Amino acid sequence: MNNKQIDALIRAGNNTMKCVDDGLYLRIARGKPSWVVKYSIGGKRSQIALPNAYPSMSISEAKMAALQIREEVKLNIDPKSKRKAAELKSIRTVNQLFEDWYQSYLIKNFKHPDIPARYYRKEMKRHIGVMAVSEVTPQHIRLIIDTVVSSGRQSAANKTLQYAKQMFNHAIKLNLTSYNPAQAFTPKDAGGTEHSRSRALQKHEIHYAFTILNQQSHIFTRDNYLACCLLLCLGCRKGELISAKWEQFDLENQTWHCITNKKRKDAPTETIVIPLTKLVISWLEELCVRSAGSAYVFPARRASKRRGYISDDTLNHALAKIFGMKVDSKKKPYPNFLPDIEPFTVHDLRRTCRSLLAEIGINEQIAERCLNHKIQGLIGIYDRHNYYEDRKSALQKLSDLVEPLLP
């Protein structure tokens, strides 16, 4: 069969299959031609389409491909199985392992997959990224951990070790290596046992710190300042606040339908109605103007395809700068603008809120509900009351206490 004959069959438009050579056929279906090779293996007949169709693959090229398939069949190699194996993603280096772990596991199971991704890219990639997965040894893991520890970031060292273990467990699942080079290490080899923070600001510290934060607007922006004020007076989690949309707020009825943080991506979404005081509403009204029509209360300050609100690190880094900490390797740190108090973090404002609620005599159960803490045991299971009016009264008392402390 030559090109003219094939072209004539295509023009005819009939569905057909014509033998061209030993085992090689031209198939025309719905007016489209393709090459098919028929063969028998293990006593069973089968067929496989060549990857390219006529005329992209000429008659002579199709004959050569069919000949190669027949030679492989003689060696008991099934071309279909060979093609399936070739379709599997090739993972050789640690960088390729990470990308597969990120796409196939982290995105599906982590609410914030970019957190382990950040630890890999910042702490691990430069040490082992280009290495073959099977060549990574415990000595490489120790070098990574020691490098993080030497920078004074014990907590980061523990997180790095944790994610290294998870990533190489993924490699074992894929049969890329027979052992996990990070498995034998414990927190004692990294940052040590971590202890829960207990930092809570006293009233005089609140007045001092927030006065400075308000004055240093060139470092700590007005949006950052208002975010900290809201965290102090609402006791919500940072992630819940910075990701909030304006559609969740009813300023007329003084409520926020807050979508609570989920520990896992597949966990059901829960909402709690948070009462808003006049002080809080005044801040939100200002933020509404500052957001310039964005759907988010704290819109992203740089163009981002990932999300429309500020980064999880924005407030933390801004506060660290105020305390003179180095957060940018390319820039010289600022002087410490708060030398008279112990450094605190954004999450410490939530603990401060809880401590102030206790100080003004709010019942423990109501205070815990204000922070949307899960009540443990049978009470948490059977008591489904939302205590809205009690929380409203408690947050109003808290606002009355905090307002004179803020500039």
Nutshell version of this structure?
It contains 16 helices and 7 strands.
Roughly how many Å is the radius of gyration? 31 Å
Helical residue percent? Answer: 40-55%
Distance between the termini: 90 Å
- Counting structural domains, the number is 3
**CATH class division of the largest domain:** Mainly Alpha
- Strands of the largest sheet, in order across it? 1-2-3-4
Low-confidence stretches: 380-384
User: What is the assembly state of the chains in this entry?
Assistant: single chain
Family: Belongs to the 'phage' integrase family.
Keywords: DNA integration, DNA recombination, DNA-binding
Protein name: Prophage integrase IntS
Organism: Vibrio marisflavi CECT 7928
Description:
With 407 residues, this protein is of the alpha+beta class. The protein folds into three domains: 85 residues, Integrase, DNA-binding domain (Double Stranded RNA Binding Domain), CATH 3.30.160.390; 96 residues, Tyrosine recombinase, N-terminal domain (DNA polymerase, domain 1, Orthogonal Bundle), CATH 1.10.150.130; 203 residues, Orthogonal Bundle (hpI Integrase, Chain A). The chain contains 16 helices and seven strands. Strands 1-2-3-4 form a four-stranded antiparallel sheet. It has a three-stranded antiparallel sheet with strand order 5-6-7. About 1% of the residues have low confidence. Belongs to the 'phage' integrase family.
Throw out a few tags for this protein.
hpI Integrase, Chain A, alpha+beta, single chain, 407 residues, DNA polymerase, domain 1, Double Stranded RNA Binding Domain
